[in-house]
Amino acid sequence: MRPAALTAQVMGIGLTGPGLPDWGRAAPILAGERPYEPAPTVLPVIEALPPAERRRTGATVRLALAVAQQALAAAGIDPATLSTVFASSGADGAICHEICLALAAEDRQLSPTRFHNSVHNAAAGYWSIAMKSMARSNALCAFDGSFAAGLLEAITQVVIDGAPVLLAAYETGYPEPLHAKRPLPDAFGVALLLAPGPAAGAQARITVTLTDAPAEPMPQGPLEALRTGAPAARSLPLLRHLARAHSGGVVIDYLDHQRMHIEVSACR
Questions:
Q1: Domain boundaries along the sequence of the chain
Q2: I want to staple 12 with a disulfide (CB 3.0 to 4.6 A). Which of 8, 47, 75, 241 is the partner?
Q3: pTM of the model
Protein backbone atom coordinates (compact mmCIF):
# COMPACT_ATOMS: atom_id res chain seq x y z
CA MET A 1 0.00 0.00 0.00
CA ARG A 2 1.39 3.40 -0.99
CA PRO A 3 1.40 6.01 1.79
CA ALA A 4 -1.12 8.82 1.48
CA ALA A 5 -0.06 12.16 0.04
CA LEU A 6 0.27 15.00 2.53
CA THR A 7 -0.48 18.60 1.52
CA ALA A 8 0.22 21.98 3.11
CA GLN A 9 0.63 25.62 2.16
CA VAL A 10 4.06 27.29 2.34
CA MET A 11 3.48 30.58 4.17
CA GLY A 12 7.08 31.65 4.76
CA ILE A 13 10.66 30.64 3.94
CA GLY A 14 13.93 31.24 5.76
CA LEU A 15 17.42 30.47 4.48
CA THR A 16 20.98 31.17 5.60
CA GLY A 17 24.06 29.51 4.12
CA PRO A 18 27.35 30.11 2.33
CA GLY A 19 26.70 32.84 -0.26
CA LEU A 20 22.98 32.71 0.63
CA PRO A 21 22.59 35.24 3.47
CA ASP A 22 18.78 35.19 3.63
CA TRP A 23 15.81 34.08 1.55
CA GLY A 24 15.27 37.51 -0.05
CA ARG A 25 18.78 37.58 -1.49
CA ALA A 26 19.05 33.84 -2.10
CA ALA A 27 15.82 33.42 -4.10
CA PRO A 28 17.10 35.17 -7.28
CA ILE A 29 20.28 33.05 -7.10
CA LEU A 30 18.38 29.80 -6.77
CA ALA A 31 16.00 30.86 -9.53
CA GLY A 32 18.98 31.32 -11.87
CA GLU A 33 18.52 35.08 -12.19
CA ARG A 34 21.83 35.91 -10.47
CA PRO A 35 25.13 34.02 -10.26
CA TYR A 36 26.00 32.11 -7.15
CA GLU A 37 29.10 33.40 -5.39
CA PRO A 38 30.18 31.21 -2.46
CA ALA A 39 31.06 33.10 0.72
CA PRO A 40 31.33 32.08 4.38
CA THR A 41 28.04 31.93 6.26
CA VAL A 42 27.48 34.94 8.52
CA LEU A 43 25.23 34.30 11.53
CA PRO A 44 23.20 37.23 12.88
CA VAL A 45 22.71 38.19 16.51
CA ILE A 46 19.33 36.95 17.80
CA GLU A 47 17.83 40.14 19.22
CA ALA A 48 14.66 38.34 20.31
CA LEU A 49 16.57 36.57 23.08
CA PRO A 50 17.18 38.30 26.42
CA PRO A 51 20.82 39.45 26.79
CA ALA A 52 21.77 36.68 29.25
CA GLU A 53 20.51 33.90 26.98
CA ARG A 54 21.93 35.62 23.90
CA ARG A 55 25.43 35.44 25.40
CA ARG A 56 25.06 31.71 26.01
CA THR A 57 24.02 30.68 22.52
CA GLY A 58 26.29 28.87 20.11
CA ALA A 59 26.39 29.01 16.34
CA THR A 60 23.82 26.25 15.90
CA VAL A 61 21.17 27.99 18.00
CA ARG A 62 21.77 31.33 16.26
CA LEU A 63 21.44 29.66 12.86
CA ALA A 64 18.24 27.78 13.75
CA LEU A 65 16.56 30.84 15.26
CA ALA A 66 17.68 33.11 12.41
CA VAL A 67 16.04 31.02 9.67
CA ALA A 68 12.96 30.38 11.82
CA GLN A 69 12.46 34.13 12.32
CA GLN A 70 12.86 34.76 8.59
CA ALA A 71 10.13 32.25 7.76
CA LEU A 72 7.84 33.76 10.35
CA ALA A 73 8.45 37.42 9.51
CA ALA A 74 5.72 38.06 6.93
CA ALA A 75 3.20 35.43 7.99
CA GLY A 76 1.30 37.29 10.70
CA ILE A 77 1.14 34.24 12.99
CA ASP A 78 1.70 34.53 16.73
CA PRO A 79 4.92 32.56 17.38
CA ALA A 80 3.88 31.87 20.97
CA THR A 81 1.12 29.57 19.71
CA LEU A 82 3.07 27.94 16.88
CA SER A 83 4.14 24.29 17.00
CA THR A 84 7.70 23.74 15.81
CA VAL A 85 9.93 21.00 14.42
CA PHE A 86 13.71 21.37 14.68
CA ALA A 87 15.77 18.93 12.59
CA SER A 88 19.55 18.54 12.50
CA SER A 89 21.92 15.71 11.66
CA GLY A 90 24.31 16.54 14.48
CA ALA A 91 23.33 19.75 16.28
CA ASP A 92 26.34 21.75 17.58
CA GLY A 93 29.59 20.30 16.23
CA ALA A 94 31.82 22.80 18.02
CA ILE A 95 30.39 21.89 21.42
CA CYS A 96 30.64 18.18 20.60
CA HIS A 97 34.34 18.85 19.91
CA GLU A 98 34.76 20.64 23.25
CA ILE A 99 33.12 17.76 25.13
CA CYS A 100 35.48 15.29 23.44
CA LEU A 101 38.47 17.45 24.45
CA ALA A 102 37.23 17.61 28.04
CA LEU A 103 36.77 13.85 28.23
CA ALA A 104 40.29 13.31 26.89
CA ALA A 105 41.85 15.67 29.46
CA GLU A 106 42.89 14.90 33.02
CA ASP A 107 40.46 17.45 34.45
CA ARG A 108 37.15 16.34 32.92
CA GLN A 109 35.19 19.49 33.65
CA LEU A 110 32.94 21.22 31.17
CA SER A 111 31.15 24.54 31.46
CA PRO A 112 27.46 24.03 32.37
CA THR A 113 26.60 26.52 29.61
CA ARG A 114 28.46 24.42 27.06
CA PHE A 115 26.79 21.26 28.35
CA HIS A 116 23.22 22.54 28.12
CA ASN A 117 23.93 23.74 24.58
CA SER A 118 25.08 20.25 23.62
CA VAL A 119 21.64 18.64 23.81
CA HIS A 120 19.84 18.08 20.53
CA ASN A 121 16.80 20.18 21.45
CA ALA A 122 18.80 23.25 22.57
CA ALA A 123 17.52 25.32 19.63
CA ALA A 124 13.93 24.43 20.50
CA GLY A 125 14.50 25.54 24.08
CA TYR A 126 15.99 28.89 23.09
CA TRP A 127 13.13 29.40 20.60
CA SER A 128 10.58 28.93 23.38
CA ILE A 129 12.43 31.54 25.47
CA ALA A 130 12.74 34.02 22.60
CA MET A 131 9.10 33.70 21.55
CA LYS A 132 7.64 33.13 25.03
CA SER A 133 6.13 29.97 23.62
CA MET A 134 4.65 27.02 25.47
CA ALA A 135 3.58 25.32 22.22
CA ARG A 136 4.62 21.79 21.28
CA SER A 137 8.11 21.36 19.80
CA ASN A 138 9.81 18.26 18.36
CA ALA A 139 13.55 17.87 17.80
CA LEU A 140 14.68 15.06 15.53
CA CYS A 141 17.70 13.65 13.74
CA ALA A 142 17.87 11.37 10.70
CA PHE A 143 21.53 11.83 9.66
CA ASP A 144 21.69 12.98 6.00
CA GLY A 145 17.91 12.62 5.67
CA SER A 146 17.17 15.06 8.50
CA PHE A 147 15.56 17.76 6.31
CA ALA A 148 13.15 15.32 4.66
CA ALA A 149 12.38 13.68 8.01
CA GLY A 150 11.66 17.09 9.52
CA LEU A 151 9.45 18.03 6.58
CA LEU A 152 7.54 14.77 6.87
CA GLU A 153 6.99 15.34 10.60
CA ALA A 154 5.93 18.97 10.14
CA ILE A 155 3.51 18.38 7.26
CA THR A 156 1.99 15.39 9.08
CA GLN A 157 1.24 17.63 12.05
CA VAL A 158 -0.33 20.24 9.74
CA VAL A 159 -2.61 17.62 8.18
CA ILE A 160 -3.61 15.94 11.46
CA ASP A 161 -3.96 19.03 13.66
CA GLY A 162 -5.18 21.48 11.03
CA ALA A 163 -2.82 24.16 12.38
CA PRO A 164 0.39 25.87 11.21
CA VAL A 165 3.78 24.31 12.00
CA LEU A 166 7.25 25.86 11.68
CA LEU A 167 10.08 23.61 10.44
CA ALA A 168 13.74 24.57 10.90
CA ALA A 169 16.54 22.32 9.60
CA TYR A 170 20.15 23.33 10.17
CA GLU A 171 23.79 22.24 10.35
CA THR A 172 27.06 23.73 11.59
CA GLY A 173 30.45 22.17 10.96
CA TYR A 174 32.84 20.20 13.15
CA PRO A 175 36.41 21.29 13.98
CA GLU A 176 39.24 18.87 13.28
CA PRO A 177 39.72 16.00 13.83
CA LEU A 178 35.95 15.39 13.66
CA HIS A 179 35.73 17.40 10.44
CA ALA A 180 37.82 14.76 8.65
CA LYS A 181 35.16 12.16 9.51
CA ARG A 182 32.13 14.44 8.99
CA PRO A 183 33.22 17.17 6.54
CA LEU A 184 30.27 19.57 6.54
CA PRO A 185 31.21 22.54 4.32
CA ASP A 186 29.72 25.44 6.33
CA ALA A 187 26.72 26.43 8.41
CA PHE A 188 23.45 26.00 6.50
CA GLY A 189 19.89 26.43 7.71
CA VAL A 190 16.43 26.46 6.15
CA ALA A 191 12.97 27.04 7.59
CA LEU A 192 9.48 26.54 6.19
CA LEU A 193 6.30 27.83 7.78
CA LEU A 194 3.56 25.39 6.76
CA ALA A 195 -0.19 25.77 7.19
CA PRO A 196 -3.37 23.95 6.19
CA GLY A 197 -5.03 25.30 3.10
CA PRO A 198 -6.42 27.22 1.53
CA ALA A 199 -4.55 30.05 3.24
CA ALA A 200 -4.40 33.70 2.24
CA GLY A 201 -0.87 34.84 1.49
CA ALA A 202 0.49 31.38 0.73
CA GLN A 203 3.54 31.30 -1.53
CA ALA A 204 2.96 27.74 -2.74
CA ARG A 205 1.18 24.50 -2.02
CA ILE A 206 3.28 21.37 -1.58
CA THR A 207 2.19 17.74 -1.65
CA VAL A 208 4.59 15.15 -0.26
CA THR A 209 4.81 11.44 -1.12
CA LEU A 210 7.60 8.88 -0.91
CA THR A 211 9.33 7.54 -4.02
CA ASP A 212 12.27 5.45 -5.18
CA ALA A 213 13.09 7.90 -8.00
CA PRO A 214 16.54 9.55 -7.87
CA ALA A 215 16.97 12.92 -6.19
CA GLU A 216 17.15 16.02 -8.36
CA PRO A 217 20.60 17.67 -8.49
CA MET A 218 21.23 21.41 -8.59
CA PRO A 219 22.19 22.72 -12.06
CA GLN A 220 25.13 24.80 -10.78
CA GLY A 221 28.21 22.84 -9.69
CA PRO A 222 28.95 24.83 -6.50
CA LEU A 223 25.32 24.60 -5.34
CA GLU A 224 25.29 20.88 -6.09
CA ALA A 225 28.42 20.48 -3.96
CA LEU A 226 26.62 22.35 -1.18
CA ARG A 227 23.52 20.16 -1.59
CA THR A 228 25.48 16.94 -1.23
CA GLY A 229 27.79 18.29 1.48
CA ALA A 230 25.33 19.66 4.06
CA PRO A 231 22.34 17.55 5.11
CA ALA A 232 20.02 20.56 5.52
CA ALA A 233 21.01 21.65 2.00
CA ARG A 234 19.25 18.59 0.59
CA SER A 235 16.40 21.12 0.58
CA LEU A 236 17.97 23.15 -2.25
CA PRO A 237 16.08 21.56 -5.18
CA LEU A 238 12.79 22.29 -3.40
CA LEU A 239 13.91 25.84 -2.62
CA ARG A 240 14.86 26.29 -6.27
CA HIS A 241 11.30 25.40 -7.33
CA LEU A 242 9.85 27.75 -4.71
CA ALA A 243 12.18 30.56 -5.81
CA ARG A 244 11.14 30.15 -9.45
CA ALA A 245 7.44 30.19 -8.46
CA HIS A 246 6.81 27.40 -10.95
CA SER A 247 4.50 24.45 -10.52
CA GLY A 248 6.00 21.00 -10.91
CA GLY A 249 7.50 18.03 -9.12
CA VAL A 250 10.88 17.67 -7.43
CA VAL A 251 12.56 14.72 -5.70
CA ILE A 252 14.86 15.27 -2.72
CA ASP A 253 17.06 12.88 -0.73
CA TYR A 254 15.65 11.11 2.32
CA LEU A 255 16.74 7.54 3.13
CA ASP A 256 19.30 5.37 1.32
CA HIS A 257 16.64 3.54 -0.67
CA GLN A 258 13.75 5.99 -0.48
CA ARG A 259 13.41 9.60 -1.51
CA MET A 260 10.70 12.23 -1.14
CA HIS A 261 8.65 13.51 -4.06
CA ILE A 262 7.27 17.02 -3.59
CA GLU A 263 4.67 18.44 -5.96
CA VAL A 264 4.87 22.22 -5.90
CA SER A 265 1.90 24.34 -6.99
CA ALA A 266 2.69 28.05 -7.17
CA CYS A 267 0.18 30.38 -5.51
CA ARG A 268 1.62 33.64 -6.88
A1: 12-202
A2: 75
A3: 0.94
